[in-house]
Amino acid sequence: MLTGKQKRFLRSEAHHLNPIFQVGKGGVNENMIKQISDALEARELFKVSILQNCEDDKDTVADELVKGTGAELVQVIGNTIVLYKESKENKKLRLPN
Question: Could you tell me which SUPFAM superfamilies the record lists for this protein (predicted)?
Answer without folding.
Answer: YhbY-like
